[in-house]
Amino acid sequence: MSARLIRRRSARPVRRMSARRLRPLAAVALAGALMATAACGGGEGDESGSGKTTLVVKTFAQFGYEDLYKEYEAAHPGIEIKEENIAQFGDYLPKLQQWMASGSGAGDIVALEEGVISKFIDKPDQFVNLLDHGAGDMEGEFLDWKWKQALSADGKHLIGLGTDVGAQGMCYRTDLFKKAGLPTDREEVGKLWPTWDDFLATGEKFTKAKTGAAFFDSAGMVYQNILMQQGDHTYYDTDNKLVIDSNPAVKSAWDQTVEMIDAGLSGEITAWSPQWNAGFKKGTFATIPCPSWMLGTIEKQAGPENAGKWDVAKVPGNGAVRGGSFLAVPKQSKHQKEAAELAKFLTDAKGQTSAFKAKSNFPSALKAIDDPAVQSFTNPYFNNAPVGKIFGESVKGLKPVYLGPENTPINDRVGQALIAVEQGKLKPDEAWDKAVDDAKSVAR
Amino acid sequence: MALHLTKSRPPTADLHPEPAPPRGRLLSRIDTRWSPYLFIAPFFVIFAVFGIYPLVYTAWVSMHDWEIAGKGEFVGLANYTALFADADFWNALVNTLGMLVLATVPQLVIALALAALLNQSLRGATFLRMGVLIPIVTSVAAVGIVFSQIYDRDVGMANGLIGLFGIEPIDWRADKWSSWIAISSMVNWRWTGYNAIIYLAAMQSIPRELYEAARIDGAGWLRQFRSITVPMIRPAVIFTLIVSTIAGMQLFTEPLMFGQGAYAISGGSLRQFQTVAMYMFEKAFRDFDYGYGSAVAWMIFLVIMLLTAVNFLITRKRG
Question: How many CB atoms lie within 10 A of CB A239?
Fold first, then answer.
């Protein structure tokens, strides 16, 4: 739209300058101004006046590192830490793209989500090899698969250190469950759905009670959760071959989800939309599969007036992980050594425990998972749900899920196809074919 | 620009009646000769840095398999050949042109009518004239949020209104026609007043005598409007048409705000309202296919050039 304004401005006639003797003076002033403009493009000024080294940490959503920064700064007087946070992951991604493409702006540590790190793993050269900075000693501390997600195929280049894993739970509204005549105690609720078929049956019971609320928010969320429980790979096999149409796991997750749409369980409220945000507060849906990192979002959206109405139960099916992040040091950092040290500090078992307590981001370090402080942690907002125990059970014995290079765009497209089914715009079979075709064109 | 350039160059010979000392003369000659260029230099320097350079660089990127992890192979025109076979791109182009028509035609017609009304001697004319400008002062994002709520499927005002007439609620985002109408209404709401003011300014420069003569000849209000007002403000109409076309081709924020959730950039579950600008953004910054995104950007540029040329030819022929 700015085109209109620019047009208008440049359409104004240029005033003629006739004062001849002012001209050389004006020329000098002009040249000066131009040079000043040119100078603005220069350095980033990452040395502060105090002579300290400033480390810039780029994050999205909530990593819960505030206390850790203070602790680290106190122990390292020469270091100053600045976190630059972008609240929405969707806004963070394009920025990350710009920083990496232009070779500047990424700061000293960048947070990478697991779907993103899979894009970099084949070309790890933009990131410092953390094995060169002694990170190799930490190998045994992490969940094995988490470690491997950030390791290049030849095992020689480690581009990131794991932060959290998206351990799964099922969040539900106790007041709506009560209204529908369902149990509200989280143990009993968990027993309602050992499998997703049982979840469907519970949903049908809930819908019959006509509470005015949908059973879950949107098909995409449920699909994601089922998909990540299906096996060791989804759209790609471990050789990076696209197997969306031949991997039975994907189709079975799709079919189960479609069955639930057909049963009318979905509220058809697109995740991360304003209506979805408001839905937590108004109770327009009764359940939502919630990875550990989503608890912070639910608490924020539902607000203090709904404290205790949301609770967390065991997720149907086996344990699963969805999401989770890493910290990496980009090669463009001027303080790679210091940044690598800080990344190690933030991601070790102690750092992860602290982040879990702050924002419920469930740790990926074994010692942190077993830490009694994590195991016994309860979340007051969710009726004092023992989230440490619930998520801990879901994480243990997990198999890694391999994602592959174009995982995120393909996942986006499958999600859109499910929305088209919800909207009644496509029949499930048509939508499936479209999702497969789209995936193939993305992966071309 | 060229016009001003020639005008502001001083007639050198007449301005130097007596010879100056040699050194001074040289300086003065350099001065008279090059200063004008220096004065206009800022525009061209800035245009080169922020206009030409990105354009050329984008073309360079578009010929590579360029991903988030950095520059890949040189692929020549492969991105463009893929683009021509890309149904999603053509879908986005159709959407953009569709919304361009829906947003431009009613907008300019209403603006014309509004300007004609504002051109009457009204009580509080200045107040009313400023009033129609208010919508462009608002931020696009805010407009997008408010209109998204108006067109909400479950609790939106639009569905409430049509419900009064017994019409079933509409899922505005589910169909092309409904989403196009919703998005066009945002654009129209925001820009009609702006165009009305431009027309009004043009109308006020029409000599009163023309109307007087027409009245003597017995022309009514409508006839005067058709035969005097509209032809006399032609340049303004052409200006608004071209500017609306360019803006319409770049339509981005309104449909993005209208979309839902983390993947709003797709413009609906079946890309019902994805514009070419959104498609470019999706390819470059969501799928991280930087080279392909650049190819889309160049196609947008070419389409705008094409439309502008068509506009230009039509106006030259008829003007």
Answer: 9
